[in-house]
């Protein structure tokens, strides 16, 4: 896979996502604490960690689906308190772990319902959807009229990612994209994300169980354990420090 650096990452520019001492959780109780996370344009960042570490909670908070318990969050310059649909219109897309598809709707209907964040005319939107399918998900072409409940897991995940990309997001968050997929399909979807991130200068935040696959495409990564970052850095460094990574993953002590 191509591991080129993101084009033009410049930390002096406003971040796409920036959190400072963020605490997030449920009913006022924090399951994520002291999170300082940054995501820049064109960058792919992996959010890693064992089950229950707080990865999904973090994504839901960044997407506006959960209110932060404390700390600061800025997503595309917007402070918390903005409703999820407003963030979505600004260009925040989330592919949730359950994919969020409607079993009774066809592939074409899902894509038609997805509208770009920056509102385009219907024709232009349809052309955008067609070009994403043609270029990156040709398998979906012959499935356009099939109800999504009849698709395989891999096809459904392609549709979920394709639908998010059709909205032309500035930032795409994907929760467990490769869950239940054959490694080859997962690898392909990750390659597509990398290609589009570079091409459109789109920021991507990836929650992944397949650590090695995520670090193949990511530029940087954070490892969460019990709701706190125990390791972060360039993907190359994380990849080359398997011992440290395993220890962080297994809930070992905080690492430098
Ligand atoms: P997984 O890979 O298992 O989804 P994760 O790293 O995404 O793990 P989260 O789903 O964010 O972890 O969960 C973090 C903690 O928050 C866990 O202890 C979980 O039990 C708890 N939790 C998750 N959802 C809720 C909820 N709706 N209400 C209360 N606690 C929750």
Question: Can you put this structure into words, describing what you see?
Answer:
The chain is an alpha/beta fold. It has two domains: 13-91 and 169-256, Rossmann fold, CATH 3.40.50; 93-168, no CATH class. It is 35% helix and 23% strand. The chain is built from nine helices and nine strands. It has helices at residues 55-62, 84-90, 107-113, 122-136, 153-166, 183-200, 211-217, 235-240, 242-249; strands at 17-26, 29-39, 44-48, 70-75, 92-95, 171-175, 203-207, 220-225, 228-234. A six-stranded mixed β-sheet has the order 5-6-7-3-8-9, with helices on both faces. The protein has a three-stranded antiparallel β-sheet with strand order 2-1-4, with helices on one face. Strand 6, helix 6 (183-200) and strand 7 form a beta-alpha-beta unit. Helix 4 crosses helix 5 (153-166). The longest helix has 18 residues, at 183-200. It is globular, with a radius of gyration of 18 Å. It starts with 16 loop residues before the first strand and ends in a 7-residue tail after the last helix. The mean pLDDT is 86. The structure holds adenosine-5'-triphosphate. Adenosine-5'-triphosphate is lined by residues 26, 31, 49, 51-57.
């Amino acid at each position: 896979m191509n591991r080129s650096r993101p084009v033009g990452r410049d930390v002096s520019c406003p971040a796409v996502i920036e959190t400072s001492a963020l605490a997030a959780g449920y009913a006022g109780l924090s399951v994520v604490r002291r999170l300082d996370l940054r995501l820049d344009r064109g960058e792919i960042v992996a959010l890693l960690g064992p089950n229950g570490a707080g990865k999904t909670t973090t994504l839901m908070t960044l997407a506006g689906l959960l209110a932060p318990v404390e700390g600061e969050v800025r997503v595309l310059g917007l402070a918390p308190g903005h409703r999820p649909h407003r963030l979505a219109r600004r260009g925040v897309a989330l592919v949730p772990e359950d994919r969020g598809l409607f079993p009774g709707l066809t592939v074409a209907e899902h894509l038609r319902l997805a509208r770009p964040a920056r509102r385009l005319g219907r024709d232009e939107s349809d052309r955008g959807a067609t070009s994403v399918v043609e270029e990156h998900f040709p398998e979906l072409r012959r499935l356009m009229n099939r109800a999504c409940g009849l698709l395989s897991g891999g096809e459904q995940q392609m549709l979920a990612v394709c639908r998010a990309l059709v909205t032309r997001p500035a930032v795409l968050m994907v929760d467990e994209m490769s869950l239940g997929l054959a490694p080859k399909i997962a690898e392909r979807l990750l390659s597509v994300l990398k290609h589009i991130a570079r091409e459109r200068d789109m920021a991507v935040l990836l929650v992944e169980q397949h650590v090695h696959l995520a670090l193949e495409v990511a530029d940087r990564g954070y490892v969460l354990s019990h709701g706190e970052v125990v390791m972060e850095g360039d993907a190359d460094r994380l990849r080359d420090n398997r011992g440290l990574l395993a220890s962080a993953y297994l809930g070992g002590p905080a690492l430098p």
